[in-house]
Amino acid sequence: MTFIRKITIAFSCILVLTFSAKTQGFWTPVDTLNKTRFYTGLAFGAAGYTAMAVGLYHAWYKQYDQERFHFFNDLHEWNQMDKAGHMHTAYLQGLLIYKGSRWAGKKKSAAIWTGVVASTVFQSTIEVMDGFSSQWGFSVSDIAANIIGTSTFAMQQHFWNDQRITLKVSSIPINYPDGIILSDQHNVSTSLSSRAKHLYGTNYLERFLKDYNAQSYWASFNIHSFLPEGNRWPQWLNVAIGYGGENMYGGFDNQWNQDGATFVLDPIKYPRYRQFYIGFDLDLPKLNPKNDFLKTLLSAFNIFKIPSPALEINTRGQVLFHFFR
Fold first, then answer.
1. Which of 74, 119, 269, 278 would suit a FRET pair with 166, their CA atoms being 20 to 30 Å apart?
2. pLDDT class for 175, splitting at 50, 70, 90?
3. Rounded distance, CA 216 to CA 244, Å?
4. What is the pLDDT of residues 273-306, one digit of tens each?
5. Helix locations, 104-222, DSSP H
6. Phi/psi of residue 157, each to 5°?
């Protein structure tokens, strides 16, 4: 379910800005458990979890009918873009909570498990709410994507003590056309611009969080860390592999109801297809700035892929070059 998952991304971004700081003094991680920090982090996490769970229920789920717990297979929805989003969100939350635990003085192993468990609990709470909602249902594929995302963080931290492969997101705004689209009975009209506004919102922030046509999800590889010690590959220059989708105006297909009419897009003119990318990216913390505030800022924004040249290969058989992706 796109809206709820996007809310969790926005919430996670706020937490990143709070806990990713590595400045001297209060925000510097300590080697032994600091009870003040531990209870501060615990209180913040508990309050945040409670506020999100209660707030989401009253703001979203309460609007829809409830029924017995049931399952819903959304594996093929949105060309699996929402699954990539689940992986990114779970990865981000696990890493964030790990950093908070290390800041409080927890040992590495305990901090990793804290990140895994807390991220899993948070994401699973949303899935359980879905399971009781008549509008959706419990999604096994969502849980699987969450586990993959959290494991991506945990395994790297355990074996490498570093995030050599960072999961990132990018979004390039799309200017949807205003051309008229007639309903199946030709008595009501709309446009792709209108449909996009209904699905994805109207302002940049909404579009960034919700527009699957504009989004791409990336695995950003820090090449320097994989090469022998002393190599000359810049520490900050990554190679990123991305995934995206295009021409998606509905979860499973490009058919929807509006104003009592049914609209169906021509699959020849508007084919739903997948995009695969390879390009460069920046590992922002590896720029190692001396300014403490800048270190904090770069660490926080490292969850976003830096727009840069990229090569696209898609399922339409096209090979395209993008100056910014």
1. 74
2. very high
3. 5
4. 999 999 999 999 899 877 766 776 787 789 999 9
5. 108-131, 140-160, 192-200, 204-210
6. -65, -35
